[in-house]
């Protein structure tokens, strides 16, 4: 399956009586990696939930290759879109291999068994996230980082045209953060990903949308969006942004508060 085009137009979302996303529009061309960044509570996860059909929009529309995901059957949507979420719910009482094999379910009829191709794709997905050695272990006995890698492998085995990821680097050590996002960058899929780490977003995303209080306040390439002024206005911190001499990507350095710097220099302990 080829990568899908994604369009979000004037999207509005509520959680109970609270408006969490207001008039958000964005688009992803096939094969692009689009990043969502912003402070906690800015609406990133809510926006993703609307795209992978968990939170129904109050207004606006979403289109995946021109089709409304809310009008698709669950099976049809799962053959197009895969999601890696922050909270997958209760741990599965299954082996890791069986959890990853769940990604093949949308491509089967009800009573179809696993094929040699399914086994190959599951093995390849486990290898891609450096989890081959976990295949026969119980999923419910894994660490948080190991579970995250397995859930990413399940999404890879699904062979999606659109991959939606909510903080996929949570719980991962530095090596696996880079490995997973490098893999995402190479996928033959369109990717919409929420990230907290601005330097990872700057390196791996084609374009970034910055959310604040449920609205997009900046959009563009990482170099266009990540500025000291934006860091101060959106995150409330002082920072420097420079071009990394080896990667060519913007590199953000956050600076401690002046009072904190003085306290650190004097050896004083924080209250």
TrEMBL record:
The family database entries (SMART domains) matched by this protein are listed as:
AAA
Q: Which domain of life is it from?
A: Bacteria
GO: which molecular function terms? Answer: ATP binding
Read off the SUPFAM superfamilies from this record: P-loop containing nucleoside triphosphate hydrolases
For this protein, the record's InterPro entries field holds: AAA+_ATPase, ABC_transporter-like_ATP-bd, ABC_transporter-like_CS, P-loop_NTPase
- Annotated ABC transporter domain residues: 6-238
Q: Which UniProt keywords apply?
A: ATP-binding, Nucleotide-binding
What protein name is recorded for this chain? ABC transporter ATP-binding protein
The species this protein was found in: Streptomyces sanyensis
């Amino acid at each position: 399956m080829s990568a899908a085009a994604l369009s979000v137009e004037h999207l509005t979302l509520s959680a109970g009586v609270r408006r969490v996303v207001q008039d958000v529009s964005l688009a992803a061309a096939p094969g692009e990696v689009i990043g969502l960044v912003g402070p906690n509570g800015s609406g990133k996860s809510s926006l993703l939930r609307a795209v992978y059909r968990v939170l129904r929009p109050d207004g606006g529309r979403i289109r995946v290759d021109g089709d409304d995901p809310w009008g698709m059957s669950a099976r049809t949507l799962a053959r197009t879109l895969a999601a890696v979420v922050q909270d997958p719910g209760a741990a599965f009482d299954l082996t890791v291999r069986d959890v990853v094999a769940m990604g093949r379910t949308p491509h089967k009829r009800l009573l179809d068994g696993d094929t040699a191709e399914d086994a190959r794709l599951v093995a390849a997905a486990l290898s891609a996230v450096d989890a081959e050695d976990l295949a026969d272990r119980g999923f419910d006995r894994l660490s948080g980082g190991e579970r995250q890698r397995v859930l990413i492998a399940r999404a890879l085995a699904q062979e999606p045209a659109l991959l939606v990821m909510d903080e996929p680097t949570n719980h991962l050590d530095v090596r696996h953060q880079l490995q997973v996002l490098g893999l995402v960058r190479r996928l033959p899929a369109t990717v919409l990903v929420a990230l907290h780490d601005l330097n990872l977003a700057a390196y791996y995303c084609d374009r970034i949308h910055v959310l604040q209080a449920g609205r997009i306040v900046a959009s563009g390439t990482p170099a266009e969006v990540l500025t000291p002024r934006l860091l101060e206005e959106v995150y409330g911190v002082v920072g420097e942004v420079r071009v990394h001499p080896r990667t060519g990507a913007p590199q953000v350095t956050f600076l401690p508060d002046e009072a904190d710097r003085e306290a650190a220099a004097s050896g004083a302990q924080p209250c």
